[in-house]
Amino acid sequence: MDSFQLPSIHIPKIPLPEVIQQVLGEAEQALSHRPKLSRLFRNCFPNTLETTVKLMDDGTTFVITGDIPASWLRDSVEQVIHYVPFAKEDADLRRIISGLIKKHVEYIHLDPYANAFNESASDWHWNTADVTEMSPWVWERKFEIDSLCFPMRLAYRYWQETGDTAVYNAEFKSAMRIIYDLFRTEQHHEARSPYRFMRHNGISEDTLANEGLGMPVNYTGMVWSGFRSSDDACDFHYNIPGNMFAVVVLRYMQEMAERIYRDNHFVQELKQLEAEIDRGISLYGIYRHPEFGPIYAYETDGYGNYCLMDDAGTPGLLSIPYLGYCTADDRIYQNTRRFALSKENPFYYEGSHARGIGSPHTPDRFIWHMALSMQGITAGSAEEKLTLIQMLEATDADTGYMHEGFHADDPHNYTRSWFAWSNSLFSQFIYQAWQDGILDEEGTS
């Protein structure tokens, strides 16, 4: 991160929706035999609602990421996604989530290449000297394919859970069209894209090479991405988990286009794009690893070069079943998972207090709580889930919250004490484990 004084923003505290209070009450009883875990869940589950949500007068919802006073399209979705299953029962929660969907639609219309936005046209920026087409609404303009996927994930999940179609108006359909058109453009990035990004701060992960165009790529059918979900620049600009996410989201968009808008022509356009991206993943995204067999690469350029790693952010290789691209027992995913959780992954670390995946975004040997939570969500056995829960319990540095990264040998050495996405993903994992019965008192030791 650049060193400068972050602007402040006032987030008035809102009352917790009744259904969320009810979940917290039930959890207190269900987890009473695990007081540390109970405290963590009590703090983390409502953290987004208690500290990052601002209800706007126009009916939208602004959600900051935590210790940075801006709203990331990606982060804001994952900060609230664990509340969606309860939205049907609570009008206040529906107001919050539907308001966020409306806000995302506004932002996509303002600039579909931006990853993070301001509450207003305040002209606040992460870096005031970025060489790109900035807007006073935009906090940062790093194009990440997942930034356009996550809002559609939230909108689809909300619709499926509540049946509420009020937010799916002409503006929402227009946002879907903008996403489709941009994906089409970025299939041919060098020839057709207006997007350029450079940041002259001496950090290679913060800027794109080749005068902001990025490294050369071959046509594959996949969608070009400038940056990863960590906001770090791609080495090779076809990010495989990001394109997998696009395939899933295009399926969501087809269903919404068909069932809400009755637009069969748009359905067929979306279906064709989905097929092209998916074929590109199959042809260019699989690497024959000498130890693990066929695995999904993290990135490729379509010329036969691969980036073999996994990053703690979502979408990543570990999160492929979470995104909905395949099931957790898929053979290539299982090979990929074994690779990602091995020392062959340059960002997998083992230390005296934990073992798991980190990121080039944070210092060497820093493991991310989000990676541990995602490993737990996608784990195939109760034993692995319980091991990860114990690891998460033991590495909060006695703060009662999750963080970004922490040193594998010293959990008290960590980044970001207020990182709502990490708290939300942890809560999602713990709630899932609780509902699956693996946290029952008689099932723990």
From TrEMBL:
SUPFAM superfamilies reported for this sequence: Six-hairpin glycosidases
UniProt keyword Glycosyltransferase present: no
Protein name as catalogued: Glycoside hydrolase family 125 protein
TM regions (residue ranges): none
Top-level taxon in the UniProt lineage: Bacteria
A GO term, aspect molecular function: hydrolase activity
Organism name: Paenibacillus urinalis
Alphabetized UniProt keyword annotations: Hydrolase
UniProt entry tagged with the keyword Hydrolase: yes
InterPro entries per UniProt: 6-hairpin_glycosidase_sf, 6hp_glycosidase-like_sf, GH125
